[in-house]
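FtsQ-type POTRA domain-containing protein, pasting as requested.
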Amino acid sequence: MAGERDRRPTPRGRAPKAAARPARASASRAPSGTRRPRGATAAAKPKPTLGLGGAGRSPKAAPQRPRDRRIQHQRAGALRVAAIAAGALVALALVVVVALFALRNAPVFAITSIEFEPTEHVSAEDVQSLAQVPEGATLLNVDTDAIEASLKKNPWVASASFSRGFPGTLRVTIEEQRPAALVLMSSGTVAWYLSEQNTWIEPVRVDSASDQSASDAALALAREHGCLLITDVPSTVDPSAGSAATDAVLDAVRQFQEGFSADFSAQVACYSAPSTENVSCVLESGVEVSLGAPTDIPEKERIVQGYLDQSDGQVVRINVRVPSSPAYREIGSDNVQPGEGVDGSSEAAE
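Structure tokens follow.
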């Protein structure tokens, strides 16, 4: 049928149409008889973007909702308020710094008086003489650290705190050293207070009654201050106010006191320390305990406590110098008195 259409007669007076010009060959041209995919062109040109306003225009942003505009406005307002507040604080701080710098040396705040409540061992005269407030010092520029260091020249002063009473009063509060022990010297008439920081505080004279020994008088004084008594120290112990106690015998006592349990330490009334190998103690019950050198301390405590628990108040002396062979002495009456040595007939090992 295709051949019949080609053989149709040409109308008279018209020239036959020229044959269609062949298309240029192209490597991307689809084979004859196949349809080109929709949208494909020989020269892929970007199509103009069609927006709401017509071809070639950029799409318009969606309009903001009233709620979004309100939130954005509130955030902007909060940021402005924060910036103003920060600026005001910085300006105020600068004003305060300038004011303090101008007032710290002002004569109106010059220190004219020092107030102090006397303590047991520190008097108002001590503070007045040791405080050494520089001339011209004011409540705003005074160096309280330097004043505290000067006050600590008194060995009883552990620390000092300060408060200001404007316009010109400096108030001083002293915290005293707490004595941990009273050490009776070999002379028997002078004792020294030893602080919790293991420093010598000051000496005190021991006055005993006619029917009282120096040790008993010193023990009464130690109990008055709530501290431990250490007696029979050698003459090599040479205290100096404010200095550290580095003597070996005192260190041996400290090792025993810290090595014992809190309950047992509370039972000790006093220590005797003529040497590091010959330390002994007397308990509040009157029982004498020969401890020896500061070794095997927990074991020695265990043995002593065992004797005390089993003796029903009859033990007067316990020897644990050698824990492996302990010994004790007891009496047969309710009146417990310190014994003399260890009675071999009553020795018992655990």
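Note for the archive: The chain is about 30% helix and 20% strand.
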